[in-house]
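Thread: quick sanity check before group meeting

JM: Hey all, I'm pulling together slides for Thursday and realized we never actually wrote out the predicted structure for the chain we discussed last week. Dropping the sequence here so it's in one place. If anyone has concerns about the input, flag it before I start.
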Amino acid sequence: SITAQGTDRILIQLPGVKDAATAKELINRTAKLEFMIVAQNVDMAKISDQIQKAEGAGKYSLDTMKYRGYVKRINEDLAKDLPKNTRLLFSKPENAESMNAAKVPYVVETGLGLGGDDLKSASTSYDEYGAPEVSLQFNTAGGNKFADITGANVNRQLAIVLDDVVYTAPNIKERIGGGNARITLGRGTNYDAQMKEANLVSMALRAGALPAKLEQLEERTVGPTLGSDSIKAAKNAIIWGVLLISIFMIVYYKSMGFISVVALVANGFLILAALVSFGATLTLPGIAGIGLTLGIAIDANVIIYERIREELRKNLNIVEASKQGFNMAMSAIVDANMTTAATSAILMYLGTGPVRGFGLTLLIGIITTMFTAVFMTRTIVEVLIYKFHVKKLSV
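JM (edit): ok, ran it. Output follows.
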């Protein structure tokens, strides 16, 4: 759920997200892709010394600052020492766990004019050694730019920069046509981490570069305890609803009503079991869906029992009456549940967030209702009649 707040803020809510760290990293990544030529005739040893002096004088480092702020600060401090129209960026060595542990400086030329706007698609692929990498495909204009740039800079390094981080800087051996490129992520020992990074980079690039930088101002994690009052109220509503239905069914339909109450309780457990198996997140609308399902589930038993009463009035015995009652009521039960299922499917397809949760629980409830109210109830009745030879069931 994404909503605007004021003129320069957005609120992003991710209910039920399982990997919050990856989601947050993707949101904070602006996916600004740039291609830059690495500057020649630059004394990198001298630049490294100047970086250390600037950090010492300003008392800052990557341990105390975010990467973007650090890059901006170090470029401001070394503006007089860097060649004209260049920037100082960094890459992470293959063996380093993070940029804080180690960083490799690059002085790159700005104003090349080739970036994420020229990109057509990005996907995760593998290099000749089976290591994950990101494959890029440019659009027609971008492909022509890329071919011209590589043709004019043979035997120089082309830095592929994402969010001011140099991912790779291969040597240009010849003019590259066809509009394809790739971002290599190194061949470290942690394959899973490389694959995760490749998927994240390609996903961010496919989503497109943002025209503005994002700054995370606040993060909140809302746990279920914060909504304990609402959950408690919803649970009480379901319990009281089931209790009143049970009392009505037992008083009005006697022993057959008790059988329907057993099926109703089993229906509730089956709904919860199905939600757990699907890994669904139970929201308040979802709880409402469960309550509604249990409320309308008893309708099937009412239709069946009224049919049985009609057959008993014809002086049929309980065996024939129950058989005719279940058979004749089936068409009405199926029709009623099919229309509800169609509505639930539309809610799941067109709805978002809590609406889909309501539709999912309602659809699961319809399936479990058909099983418990019809099959389970009929099985209990037939076991009582044929196995225990019950001659009379009050209804």
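AS: nice. The mean pLDDT is 86. The first helix runs from residue 20 to 28.
JM: adding both to the slides.
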